[in-house]
Specification:
The chain is an all-alpha fold. The protein has nine helices and no strands.
Length: 173
């Protein structure tokens, strides 16, 4: 199985395929954009130990201001793999509904890093829906395919996730 890259994650921010749409950002302005600054600030507030006291407030603000997409951008752009689990955990900790981004989190589940996978699975298990039938079918297929080349310690996690995804699919039918 080929390893997912940052560009694979970025496809979920394609406005032609998914709901997220960013207006007024071109490649030359991307690093200096307000979104890029928000992503940097958010990453710092959620992962830097010196900001531990404001984490709960940050999560509440994310939910209140409907800034889930900024959190997803932070995950997609994070270059430090040790910080990824903290950013992914913020998704379920914030109680924002990320159901429409199920494919994005399935890619994270299949990451080599155990903690990244574990946190992504937790996000999926906490998703209230609604789900698109096609996303669920693709997620189930990708997880089944991923099980063939995954470590034995993650097999149990993926089996449990498959049960969860199948339950979601039954609710739709």
């Amino acid at each position: 199985m080929e390893k997912e890259t940052e560009s694979d994650y970025k496809k979920y921010f394609n406005p032609q395929e998914y709901v997220t749409q960013f207006i007024g950002i071109d490649k030359t302005d991307e690093e200096n954009s307000d979104d890029a600054k928000e992503v940097t600030l958010l990453s710092s507030l959620l992962t830097d130990p010196k900001h531990k006291g404001v984490k709960e407030e940050t999560l509440l603000t994310l939910k209140k201001e409907k800034k889930g997409e900024i959190l997803l951008m932070a995950i997609a752009r994070e270059k430090n793999k040790t910080l990824l689990p903290f950013l992914i955990a913020a998704c379920w900790e914030s109680e924002i509904n990320f159901s429409k981004y199920l494919p994005f989190f399935v890619l994270l589940v299949l990451d080599d890093d155990y903690l990244v996978s574990l946190e992504a699975i937790t996000v999926i298990e906490e998703m209230p829906g609604p789900f698109e039938k096609q996303h669920l079918a693709q997620a189930i297929e990708k997880i089944k395919e991923g099980k063939k080349s995954i470590t034995s310690e993650k097999q149990v996690l993926l089996n449990d996730l498959l049960d969860t995804l199948n339950a979601f699919a039954q609710e739709i039918n």
